[in-house]
Amino acid sequence: MIPPEFEYVAPNTLDEALQALRTNEDAKILAGGHSLLPLMKLRMAAPATLVDIRKVPGLRGVQRENGQWKIGALTRHADLQGNADLGPLGKAAALIADQQVRNRGTIGGALVHGDPASDLPTVLVVCEGTVTVAGDGGTREIAAGDLFEDYLTTSVGEGEVLTEVRVPDFDGWGSSYLKFTRRAEDWAMVAVCALVKRAGDGSFEDVRIGLTNMGSTPLRATAAEDALRGKGADAIAAAAEQAAEGTDPPGDLNASPDYKRHLTRVLTRRALEEAAA
Ligand SMILES: Cc1cc2nc3c(=O)[nH]c(=O)nc-3n(C[C@H](O)[C@H](O)[C@H](O)COP(=O)(O)OP(=O)(O)OC[C@H]3O[C@@H](n4cnc5c(N)ncnc54)[C@H](O)[C@@H]3O)c2cc1C
After folding, report:
1. 81 lines ligand 1 (CB under 6 A)
2. What is the pLDDT of residue 43?
3. Does the chain have fewer CB atoms within 10 Å around its N or its C terminus?
């Protein structure tokens, strides 16, 4: 449980952080440390230098602007949990691990780490949000759909810092994030995020469903979304039956692929019912 030796720098500005990433070979950003440090202690990661960005100003906080939420990369899960204005983001953040982890872990770290069993990546994909990353050439935006490339792999480059997350405000939508775990506070065996918008006649004008831990990246259950769009609440059960279509989840110690697909169908039905209500 002792990590390999490493150098440590704690820059005071974003420019200094980018410079530290550029000049130190094999450097890694340290944010909340709740994914990176366990990997180092298990000797599955051995960066030569940790660039601790926690002193960089302007990277923490939640602001509403022009119909969007702007969330700084260093905003902690505890800052998001239970915030009803943030819809599925506030609900999912409240289900991450325990309060100690939520007090340290950051949204930027959770997204760049790119673990398909993580909760916030799925929410970002369902919200069709974007992230801003800063690098030597300036800043660029990455859409959620282009961020998660594979297991623990995102399109954020080695020398880049994720600075901000943006999600639409979703006023007038219903949302739900349901997570199935073997023990309370565990990682998701499977989790489902649902976001629905209903028309005046009660039918579903728009439906979005995201799946956690059903593949190497967060997934959208597009067959179930298409099956419910334009229909009423009586179509939820049949649509949810299609939620695992096209998925090929790996089995693990907790669940076989078939059991995960079963959980997906059940959780999707419940999440849609909750979001619709
Ligand atoms: C016991 C335990 C249980 C957990 N359970 C859950 C759970 O149920 N659900 C869940 O979603 N998560 C869970 N987590 C993970 C937790 O949410 C982490 O905090 C999160 O995944 C990573 O955020 P961090 O700020 O700690 O990142 P760090 O560990 O500091 O960094 C993670 C990675 O992201 C990079 N990085 C961090 N910030 C940036 C940035 N701004 N720009 C570019 N790269 C960056 C780092 O270099 C590193 O590669 C758990 C963690 C622990 C220890």
Report:
1. no
2. 94
3. N
Atom of ligand 1 nearest to the CA of 160: 43
For ligand 1, the distance from its centroid to the CA atom of residue 111, given in whole angstroms, is 8
Top mutation candidate among 8, 21, 34, 111 for ligand 1, by most atoms within 8 Å of CB: 34
* Protein residue with least CA distance to atom 35, ligand 1: 109
227-236: Cβ within 8 A, 24+ apart: 228/196, 228/204, 228/272, 229/204, 229/205, 230/203, 230/204, 230/205, 231/203, 231/204, 232/202, 232/203, 232/204, 233/202, 233/273, 233/276, 236/269, 236/272, 236/273, 236/276
Q: Is 118 in the pocket of ligand 1 (CB under 6 A)?
A: yes
Q: What is the distance in A from the centroid of ligand 1 to the CA of 161? A: 14
Q: From ligand 1's centre to the CA of 40, what distance in Å?
A: 13
Q: Ligand 1 centroid to 36 CA: how many Å?
A: 7
Q: From the first residue on, what is the mean pLDDT of each consecutive set of 10 residues in the chain (277 residues)?
A: 93 98 95 97 96 98 96 98 95 97 98 98 98 96 98 97 96 96 92 97 97 98 98 97 96 94 98 97
- Per-residue model confidence (pLDDT) at position 184: 83
